[in-house]
Amino acid sequence: MTTKLFGEPVRRREDPRLLTGQGRYLDDLGGDALAAAFVRSPHAHARIRDIDVSAAIDVDGLVAIYTWEDLPALLAQPLPLLIPHPALTHGRTAHPLARDVVRHVGEPVVMVVARDRYLAEDACALIRVDYEILKPVVGVEEAAQSAQLVHDDVPGNVGAHLVQEVPSAAGLGAREAIDAAPHTLAFRLDIERSASMPLEGRGVYARWDADDRSLRVYTSTQTSTSVRMAIAAKLGLPLPKVEVIAPDVGGGFGVKIVHPWPEEVLVPWAAILLGREIKWAEDRREHFVSSAHERAQVQSVRVGFDDDGRVLGLEVNILHDHGAYTPYGIIVPIITSTQLLGPYKIGAYRVEFSSIYTNTVQVTPYRGAGRPQAVFCMERTMDHIAAHLGADRTAVREVNFIRPDEFPYDQGLIFQDGRPLIYDSGDYPESLRMLKELIGWDSFPEAKARAAAEGRRIGIGIGCYVEGTGVGPYEGGHVQITSDGRVHVSTGLTSQGQGHETVFAQIAAAELGVPLERVSVVTGDTRRFGYAVGTFASRAAVMSGNAIALACRKVKEKALRIAADALEAAPGDLEIVDGEVRVLGAPGASIPLATVAVLSNPLRYAFDEEAARATQFAGTPAFDRPPVEEGQEPGLEGRDYYSPLRSTFASGMHAAIVETDPLTAEIRILRYAVVHDCGNLINPMIVEGQIHGGVAQGVGGALYERMVYDEHGQLLNASFMDFLMPYATEIPLVETAHLQTPSPLNPLGIKGAGEAGVIPVSAVIASAIEDAEGIGIDRMPISPSELFDLRRAATGRSTSET
Amino acid sequence: MKPPPFDYHAPRSVGEALETLADVGEHGKVLAGGQSLIPMLNMRLAAPGHLVDINRLTELATLDVEPGGVRVGALARHAQVERSEEVAAAQPLLRQALRLVAHPVIRNRGTVVGSLVHADPAAELPAVLAVLGGSVRLARPGTVRDVPAAGFFTGILESAAEPGELAVSAFFPLLPPRSGTAFREVARRHGDYALAGVAALVGLDDDLRITTARVACVSVGPAPVLVDVTEACGHRPPASADWASAARAVQERTAPEADIHATADYRRHLTGVLAQQALRDAAREALDA
């Protein structure tokens, strides 16, 4: 690399656009399009007896009303099960519009198209659906025991069941190892539902060109390429006639990787049928009840350990609530099961999960994707062990760490990408040392005693995690240098505000030796790049970043070869600096990349003076070679793909100091410290921004957010008034320190950073509250009201014991 | 989340507004700051046939410190009242409470009188009106009546304002000499409706002994719960007052309900804690007055 752009805290170049209202989000597009709205089930479980649309017909501006019976054969099928798995023996997905039975509040039943959204909602309000109400199944433990079924053909409501087991080095199974251990503990943990909750909901805008027989769809998605394939398949269109574009996307956090949503196929279908542009922009209430949630799990833990706190055996049973359908397979509980091991060497491990249907919104990955639950489980276990032994919580973790000289470290499990769970690199003891120093772990007991003398309660907590990032199968990058010297980079995966335009430009500028300002980046537009997987699993920088670097290297090689001809030098003697190819050690012998781009494309026709230099009568042609040599292509461009052997494993450790009010039971985070290792940093400022945002979502999950379903399957807090997403006022200052252990798996030595911040927060806050209160915390989130109850229960218990 | 159809009226004078409201009767709804009404319309929880927008009636955007108290016009925004030094000097509880009302952008738009008429038992301003013994002025063509706080809040989101009436102003009496006020609350997030909250007023005599002590509590009943705790405090100086006994007396009068954010027991507990804190704060202010 010839410039220092890689690793620099370059300011986000998308921010001026996004912060001044120049962003183009889905609902900024298609101002003249017809609007779609949906009649959604008000019941958690019901059979549709009849749909009467007669009262809606007279609504002024109504264009069309569709029910399941109107759908053509391909669309009338259930939506795809995106990620099949042998253990998912009873995978079920919804129909785009409900057929016969609805299985959660919010399931779409009728689509209405009208002149605008107001009129569409007026029509929706007049459509009468006659339901036979069925008994709903709510709560994962209730569902696991219930005779009532969410799907008639799924016995016990069990969609999937999977056991993974790694024996100890001595060949003991986990249960044997636990039974043989000097100390054993057993306990139960509980995590409630939350959701990605991006500020921009989902949305689809479709334009059918009847003359060209082509379809253009804008959708607020995390994977435009795959939505494109889904639409082509579901609507029976030739793939080249379908374009899908993710415009500016106001956050995804996982929910927008699910596809095709019912609306993503229904809106384009109706647009073709009606020959009109149609748009659907999800509102907040729809997002709460008809997109996806995550997190909810109940875990039973048994652990055996020695006098030092070394874990000899660990057995975890997980009940995972996946809601009414499983379009995204069992990725979440697989990640929980495998990432639970964190930075530790566990003697023997057995994990078993049952993924259970309930009459609630489906569960698909939300930032962290099963890891917050996993880390909550393992870190609560570490704290339990420390409490049992009277040991320092960090000492128990330290004794279990994988050592820096043990990488690559094989955990013996199969990860979410179907490949072995082998950690590539890391330095956990150093990370812990840095964290203890950052938060002042060793001096905290004195601070706690001082606070206690003032009648205040403070506590400190810690949580460690390892995060598999940058999962395959691949991403690609395309880089083109045009004759004006500009560099055009495109990659197929999408952006939701992460700063891809900045970091991908940094990579390209550094690889090519051009000024950052000359590089432009396009993501998520299938017109520019058709092959991609999507943005999830902290994979964009690792996958597309490396693909773009590799594509740049191809372009650079070609540029140097062409320039070498022009400069009569060997390619090895050339360098590119500031957009100019120079001969090393020969000042003045140089040629701009713009000119190289001209020369790369032999022309017959000139349209400007630059182009004239590449026409057939210019220069001195070599008559023994064709203008475009065999194996070469015109143009200064390159395309390459990055497909890794395995995931990279980022890691981190967080610590927090909390204060609990002795009277009101309010919980306040006084300090929050993060040590983070995602390998080489492309842009430390963007990584820190990712961490801050992640921690903020983690604080939400720890202290504020939950989806409250009643026994009828009604979501009681489907608005931002009662679903308590924290404000800036609830988020502490996040203190960060970076450790960089490069990944040996990819050319740039990087690992993913997108989800890291959120992962251990519930574990850290639980640990800190437990320390402040001296009361065990085994379920999260926790509210002041719940802490008040725990205090009373603890007082009652100690009173009855004495 | 789009409102159902309604007829929109934008009267240019109070007289025209009153005529319009009289015409549309129970099908009408007054739009002032819209901070509660617009979300209810968008969620189709409210479907009035007629919206009478009073935002052009600048004659109602008044804020007057009168000899007996502060009169707040129907179009005075929270922020206007909160930022007025004159009001803060005359009746400090208004600023103490308004700082806890939602967020600055909501206070820029929302109105004090609108908040009173909305009569949300979790809101701060009804408690302020209750503890101060203020009143709301209701008008219809040809008649005006003042309804005291004690009779104004009739239930959850229900007030004495009848269909066809416009609340034109609210009146907050001045504090007697040697009195102080305070507002304490606990909310889940900064600016949220309080899980529990207490507005307190404490008055002292010339010997600096407590002669008046009362609180109004939010979120623990269908309307602000007004409790006179003068007796419970004892006719003593604040330093030796029995605040704990006063707090218990307050708790006994509350009938909180559980919801997804807090149990009834926790709200009752908080109310006791906050009552004690607010009474102490108010007494301290009274001593400084």
TrEMBL record, chain A:
It comes from Streptosporangium minutum. InterPro entries: Ald_Oxase/Xan_DH_a/b, Ald_Oxase/Xan_DH_a/b_sf, Ald_Oxase/xanthine_DH-like, AldOxase/xan_DH_MoCoBD1, AldOxase/xan_DH_MoCoBD2, AldOxase/xan_DH_Mopterin-bd_sf. PANTHER family: ALDEHYDE OXIDASE 1-RELATED, XANTHINE DEHYDROGENASE. Keywords: Molybdenum, Oxidoreductase. The keyword Amino-acid biosynthesis does not apply. Residues 20-135 form the Aldehyde oxidase/xanthine dehydrogenase a/b hammerhead domain. Gene3D superfamilies: Aldehyde oxidase/xanthine dehydrogenase, a/b hammerhead, Aldehyde oxidase/xanthine dehydrogenase, molybdopterin binding domain. SUPFAM superfamilies: CO dehydrogenase molybdoprotein N-domain-like, Molybdenum cofactor-binding domain. The keyword Plastid does not apply. SMART domains: Ald_Xan_dh_C. This is Xanthine dehydrogenase. GO terms for molecular function: iron ion binding; oxidoreductase activity.
From TrEMBL, chain B:
The keyword Oxidoreductase applies. Residues 1-177 form the FAD-binding PCMH-type domain. Keywords: FAD, Flavoprotein, Oxidoreductase. It holds the Pfam family FAD_binding_5. GO terms for molecular function: FAD binding; oxidoreductase activity. The keyword Oxidoreductase applies. Signal peptide: none annotated. Gene3D superfamilies: 3.30.465.10, CO dehydrogenase flavoprotein, C-terminal domain, Uridine Diphospho-n-acetylenolpyruvylglucosamine Reductase, domain 2. PANTHER family: XANTHINE DEHYDROGENASE SUBUNIT C-RELATED. This is Molybdopterin dehydrogenase.
